[in-house]
Every structure is written in structure tokens, then in C-alpha cells.
Amino acid sequence: MSQQRKHGPSHRLDTIYATDQPRQDFRFDESVARVFPDMIRRSVPGYTTIIPMIEVITEQYVQTGSHCYDLGCSLGASTLAMRHGMPASGCTLVGVDNSPAMIDRCEHYIALDDHPLPVTLRCEDILDTDIVDASVSTLNFTLQFVDPGRRLELLTRIAEATRPGGVLILSEKIRFDCEREQETQTRLHHEFKRANGYSDLEISQKRSALEQVLIPETLGEHTRRLEAAGFRDVTVWYQCFNFVSMLAFKPD
């Protein structure tokens, strides 16, 4: 596994919600793109573990001559992880995101990385992007931002485009059926944020901004939908508080 990554364009400390402000829905705009590496590191428990493991998983399941997709690639952390898990030739890697600000910065990160495999970046909605002959696809904290009524449609298209023996890596924030467990996991997540320097005001305002944008579901809901889409053997390979990463396999 590659141990080094070159630094991309400069980014700043996340202070977007540090001052009292009118409520508005969260958007992946330029202000978020500038601070996104700091934001996600301090907000998502286990993110710094998940990213390098995407490289390991990609290396295990990439198939010669196939396409690999990072759907909702943001600044390209998981794209680069997939790239370093793929052979230098014989495969194609595609990163897709509908935020121009994210794609613009992602291009810089890709250019600074020293792996020879070319990466194609598409600035478009993952619900519309073409997916063909895939062996590894990644939805890394992306599906939770897709309209729940269209999630099965997206996963079905991914499954239909995936080669037998291929895999989908799906990372998500989840919710829990048990109210007590939900409260416990939420409290621990907030404590994680406080430990990383976020104030109560920042935690509260970001939670409010995400309420109508990020719609979490239970593990059971994810598993049933993945199976309905055509995947099998859904496996949780990582969990920290209310954040998980799963593998879903296309049957041979």
C-alpha cells in the first residue's frame, strides 16, 4: 500500500459554523470545498481509516480491463485510494461529482499524485452518469445525500453494470431503530466532534443545516435495498459510532 500522498491545493480550518448565522441547507460549494479535508476529518469518525482501506479493497477486487468508479468523489481522497490499489494500465478510473468547486480542487489533487494511471473526472450528477463494465465502485458518504426515492434506482444501475465478482464499497452515516441506541451513538458522535475542537454552536448549526439534506437509514434498510438492486453478501467491514462502511458483492 502506498504510504505517501502529496498535498493538494491549500485548505483551511473549518470555521463555517463558528458564528451564529441564519439557517440554510448545507451545500457543497466553494466555502465547503476550501475546508473539506479538515471538515470531514473532524466530523466523520473513522474516515482516516476508511480511506486507506479503500485502497486495500480495490486491490483485492479490481479486474483486468474493467472500469472503477468513485461516485461522489468530492476532493478525490477515495479516488486516489482506488488509484493506488489499481494496476498502472489495463483499467479505467472515473471520479464523479456534481459540485464544480469540488471537481476543480480534485483535479489539483489528482495532478499532484504520482501514480501513472489516468483518472477521468466528470462534473455531473451520479444519477445521470454512465456506469459500464465495473469491477469496483465506491459511494463514500454519498448515498446519504441522494433522494431516498431514487437510491434503489442508482444502486440497481451500479449492480447491473458490475461484473460478476465485483464489489461496491458503500460508506454511510446510519440511524438506529432502537431509540436508546440512536441517542447513545449520536451523543458519542457529538463528543467526537467536541474532542476535535468543534463548539456546541458549530455542532448545532451544522446539524440543522444537514437535517433536510443528509437522510440516514438503518443497516437493515441498506442491506435490503442492496439485495433488491442485485448485490449479495452485504458485509459491514467497519463501524465507528453511527458511521459504517459496507461491501456488497455482485454474484458470480
TrEMBL record:
**GO MF assignments:** carboxyl- or carbamoyltransferase activity; methyltransferase activity; S-adenosyl-L-methionine binding
Listed under catalytic activity are:
prephenate + S-adenosyl-L-methionine = carboxy-S-adenosyl-L-methionine + 3-phenylpyruvate + H2O
User: Which GO biological process annotations does it have?
Assistant: methylation; tRNA wobble uridine modification
Which UniProt keyword terms apply here?
A: Methyltransferase, S-adenosyl-L-methionine, Transferase
Matching entries from SUPFAM superfamilies are given as:
S-adenosyl-L-methionine-dependent methyltransferases (SSF53335)
Keyword S-adenosyl-L-methionine applies? yes
Please state every residue range assigned to the domain named Methyltransferase.
Answer: 70-166
Which EC main class describes this enzyme? transferase
Instruction: State the coiled-coil residue ranges.
Output: none
Residues reported in the UniProt entry to bind S-adenosyl-L-methionine: 47, 72-74, 97-98, 125-126, 140, 207
What Pfam families does UniProt report for this protein, alphabetically?
Methyltransf_25 (PF13649)
Q: Which domain of life is it from?
A: Bacteria
Q: Give the EC number(s) under which this enzyme is classified.
A: 2.1.3.-
What interactions and quaternary structure are annotated? Homodimer.
Biological function: Catalyzes the conversion of S-adenosyl-L-methionine (SAM) to carboxy-S-adenosyl-L-methionine (Cx-SAM).
Family of the protein in this entry: Belongs to the class I-like SAM-binding methyltransferase superfamily. Cx-SAM synthase family.
> HAMAP family from the entry?
Cx_SAM_synthase
> Mind telling me what this protein is named?
Carboxy-S-adenosyl-L-methionine synthase
